[in-house]
Design brief:
Number of helices: 20
Helix content: 25-40%
Oligomer: single chain
CATH class of the largest domain: Alpha Beta
Strand order of the largest sheet: 12-11-8-6-7-14-15-23
Structural class: alpha/beta
CATH architecture of the largest domain: 3-Layer(aba) Sandwich
CATH topology of the largest domain: Rossmann fold
Number of domains: 3
Bound molecules: 5'-O-[(S)-butoxy(hydroxy)phosphoryl]adenosine
Radius of gyration: 24 Å
Strand content: 15-25%
Shape: globular
Distance between the termini: 29 Å
Number of strands: 30
Largest sheet: 8 strands, mixed
Low-confidence stretches: 1-6
């Protein structure tokens, strides 16, 4: 866990802002008075139900929750059609800004047509209710169309981040049993085309697979390999479809999507989210936390749709609310380091939701870059993915938020589906560095090792959630047991174990202190130490590997690996390191590439054979090595350090 400094300056809400804010004290009061009634109200107010529900929460089979179970809805209808029916068809849903400077304006009426065509195309490819579709695409409108088309058909999607490798894609396709993959020929990266379909082709050579069709959007006009049996161009199949399609209502608990995330073991977990509860909380939080006012705001969430933030806060939350948003395909520094601020100025972005790692990168580039642009439209700033250090928080407020925009530091997870702990802009007195309080309807506690609630300030413990919530994961796809073991057993079946360390400050604010398990957080992305270790040992030269997350100024944590080479493989310095880094990129994806790989003669182990990562972390962070008395061989650390100094 990282130490953080409690700040001495907090920021009281602005009265003008408060007057128009969606987040009100009454919400806290209502949720405290009647928890289920509160969520039922949210679900009725924010969602259009094809069949109203009568039961709010069924927790009788805990930890398997059912929310609004006898209700029916269609998620895509809620995100698209109903806005058109309400007379808002001309409102812009998406301002698309391409990597190449190409743009596209998509109104809600356009979105309805595009999603309908895509749904018709997918059903022509045999996709119906309950069938899984894998989506491996860059940040382009077709990705949003495809996700919504799946929702329209009741076909759960599994979006796989475009930075994942062919191997990772293969595992995910097989685990979800996806019969259709939607992809693009290539993706633009820093002004250059990079292949994407090639990874799909490769993934299908990795072994048995259920894929019948690969639907390919032409994005970069790159050369692709073509297999007539399964490959289909988007423009051949989607363009000729009717733009009319009737959305089919599904049960509230019908699966909406699977999204894989890293856990403590090597095998990624397919987090399952369902329809009614997920959409309710995504829409609710986007309204009260981001303070979206659909008729006037221009909202921009910079996440990739391959992560849960993109699911909840690009696709489902904002579109359910009928918001206008920016969708940006490119990177922050292409073609120049002011690109984001140029986009804010161009579209008059009012709400910006991004990650601390991006903010720290902009800090490094210098405040003079955003200062060249008119950012006066911005009225709310958000942060997500990891703790934001108070220094970055203040820089963000001053240089991006005009010294006045409230910042919402939002804590949540792939598993929680939507924001759980966050200040409410206009209501909360902001404390830089802290995510502060559970939002109305959510209950959290901090427990010590034995499961006793901690109430005193500065006592460090484990964050738990004490009540079910509508957008909670329902299970791990195909593995109910792992679901129970991972989340509902550490402190017994009444507490959801989040895997994060936390403490209160003297004002009762919650401070998140990082993961307590073997999960790293690199640039707000979750990576498992076990997964990278198993990628390393799959290389012929590696006998053993241990991976730790070491703190990094920009990315929060960085992957540091220690490897022991097999007999007969020489340590060729940089060449060995480079080869192993590339091997990890190939096995998992470039995001998992270790920043540092150290070849060592031994690894520190306890008498029971468990690797003591704590000691390796000391080495990776250039600290004096801590207590070594529980090591089976206490001289190992001397060997490791002597070996490293020699280099
Ligand atoms: C983990 C979840 C939630 C979408 C992005 C990441 C860390 C997330 C915060 C925050 C401190 C945070 C936690 C959490 N985290 N937001 N505001 N302050 N830590 O989703 O990949 O499922 O990762 O990210 O450690 O457990 P994810």
């Amino acid at each position: 866990m990282r130490m953080r400094i409690v700040s001495d300056t907090s920021y009281a809400p602005d009265a003008n802002f408060a007057a128009g804010a969606n987040g009100k004290q009454e919400l806290f009061d209502a949720a405290a008075a009647d928890f289920e009634g509160f969520w039922a109200d949210q679900a009725r107010e924010r969602i259009t139900w094809a069949k109203p529900f009568s039961q709010t929460l069924d927790w009788s089979n805990a930890p398997f929750a059912k929310w609004f179970a006898d209700g029916q809805l269609n998620v895509a209808y809620n995100c698209v059609d109903r806005h058109v029916e309400a007379g808002n068809g001309d409102r812009v849903a998406i301002h698309f800004e391409g990597d190449q400077g190409d743009t596209r304006t998509i109104t809600y009426a356009d979105l309805q047509k595009e999603v309908s065509k895509t749904a018709n195309a997918l059903s022509e490819l045999g996709i119906g209710k309950g069938d899984r579709v894998a989506i491996y695409m860059p940040m382009i409108p077709e990705t949003v169309f495809t996700m919504l088309a799946c929702a329209r058909l009741g076909a759960p999607h599994s979006v796989v981040f475009g930075g994942f490798s062919a191997d990772a894609l293969h595992t995910r396709i097989v685990d979800a049993d996806a019969t259709v993959v939607v992809t693009t020929d290539g993706q633009w990266r820093r002004g250059k085309p990079a292949p994407l379909k090639a990874a799909v082709d490769e993934s299908l050579t990795r072994g048995e697979h259920p894929v019948k069709h690969v639907l390919v959007v032409k994005r970069t006009d790159s050369e692709v390999r073509w297999n007539d049996d399964i490959d289909k161009w988007w423009h051949d199949v989607v363009d000729r479809q009717s733009d009319q399609h009737t959305p089919e209502p599904v049960d509230a608990e019908h699966p909406l999507f699977i999204l894989y995330t890293s856990g403590t073991t090597g095998k990624p977990k397919g987090i399952l989210h369902t329809s009614g509860g997920y959409l309710t909380q995504a829409a609710y939080t986007n309204s009260i936390v981001h303070d979206v006012h659909p008729e006037s705001d221009v909202y921009w969430c910079t996440a990739d749709v391959g992560w849960v933030t993109g699911h909840s806060y690009i696709v489902y939350g904002p579109l359910a609310n009928g918001a206008t948003q920016v969708l940006y395909e490119g990177t922050p520094d292409t073609p120049h380091q002011g690109r984001w601020w140029e986009i804010v100025q161009k579209y008059g972005v009012t709400i910006l939701y991004t990650a601390p790692t991006a903010i720290r990168t902009f800090m490094k580039w210098g405040a003079e870059i955003p200062a060249k642009y008119d950012l006066s439209s911005i009225r709310v700033l958000g942060s997500v993915g990891e703790p934001i250090n108070p220094e970055a928080w203040r820089w963000y407020r001053k240089n991006i938020g005009g010294d006045k925009a409230p910042i919402v530091d939002t804590w949540w997870q792939t598993e929680t589906g939507a924001i759980m702990i966050s200040p409410l802009p206009g209501l909360t007195t902001l404390e830089p560095g802290s995510a502060q309080r559970p939002i109305p309807g959510i209950s959290a506690e901090i427990l010590d090792d034995e499961g006793n609630p901690l109430t005193e300030p500065e006592q460090v413990g484990y964050l738990v959630l004490t009540k079910p919530w509508p957008s909670m994961l329902r299970t791990i796809w195909g593995d109910d047991q792992r679901y129970q073991d991972t989340y509902w057993s550490r402190f017994g079946p009444k507490y959801y174990f989040a895997g994060d360390g936390a403490k209160y400050d003297a004002d009762g604010n919650i401070w998140l202190l990082g993961r307590v398990d073997d999960v790293m957080n690199v640039s707000g992305h979750r990576l498992s130490t076990a997964e990278i270790e198993s990628a390393l040992v799959s290389h012929e030269s590696v006998a053993e590997a241990a991976v730790v997350g070491a703190s990094d100024e920009t990315t929060g944590q960085a992957v540091c690996a220690f490897v022991i080479l097999r007999e007969g493989f020489a340590d060729n310095g940089d060449d060995t390191v480079q080869e192993l880094r590339n091997h990890v990129a190939k096995e998992i994806g470039p995001i998992a590439k270790p920043r540092q790989i150290m070849v060592v003669p031994e690894l520190p182990k306890t008498r029971s054979g468990k690797i003591m990562r704590r000691l390796l972390k000391d080495v990776a962070e250039n600290r004096e090595v801590g207590d070594v008395t529980t090591l089976a061989d206490s001289t190992v650390m001397n060997l490791i350090q002597a070996g490293l100094k020699k280099d």
